[in-house]
Amino acid sequence: MNTQQAKNIQITDYLERLGINPKRIKSDDYWYCSPLRQESTPSFKVNNRLNIWYDFGLGKGGNIIDLVMLLHNLNDVSAVLKHLSKDNFSISPVKKDDSSSFQQQKEPLITNIRILPINNPALIKYINNRRISLDIVRLYCKEIHYSIGGRKYFAVGFKNDSGSYELSNPNFKGSTPPKDITTISKNNDSCFVFEGFWDFLSYLELKNLKSAKQDIIVLNSVVNLPKALEFIKQHNEVYSFMDNDPAGRKAKEDIRLVRKKHFDQSKLYEKFKDLNEYLCNIKPIQKQAKGRRM
Length: 294
What we know:
The chain has helices at 3-7, 11-17, 64-72, 77-85, 121-129, 134-140, 197-207, 225-233, 246-258, 275-282; strands at 24-26, 29-32, 44-47, 52-55, 60-62, 110-116, 141-148, 151-159, 165-169, 172-175, 182-184, 190-194, 215-218, 237-241, 262-264. Helix 8 (225-233) runs parallel beside helix 9. The protein contains 10 helices and 15 strands.
């Protein structure tokens, strides 16, 4: 199989082989809960005519090769072609249309963004269920109101280095574009690398800290690790808090390639998916804090 043949494999067919089915279909647009992250509100779109995808939560998109790379943590096109050659896919030429382009798939799905202090009772309950003190969350996060497809939502928002926000509520995990890492520099010779911001806040909660003396990198998704490698290289010692899953293990291997003094902290919570799940299992839920009226 060559590159062009691979690009002619329908993304919807490939996802179906993986057991991933659309939540809704509107004309040529197939909407899925993202296969690249956890969410319950579909924000991953495949245009079946152009055969391209876009994940509005990640701010990433492309063709089937780009998708397979991210889904299976593959490093180059040849590995993707080898992977796709294992299955007997039907290959049909993708229709071209000069009036449509990939750029049109990047129209922001998340709109009408408002940034507020965290006061919403539902979000405070969600934070409490995460077993993290409201005071700590308020230091690093905001209450973000936004719209998706004309519907209004709100979430806990954690700012990244591009000035946009990682969003999290009980039904959605994504971001306002662009997707990026978050770094907190203390000019320290060691740094902590967290996969998500709830893990970073869980660490502070476990240590009863408001801030860490080490430099901090929050990837906001393992797909952002390449953006963090240069910052990681600037430190003598690196402590990683990755998820206990294949993507997290791959990320640890990539970190170890650039910094030999790498200390894997996931062993501390090896029976759990991530640091926040560990925290939730060892700390009892507390009486819900009250938010100020808006």
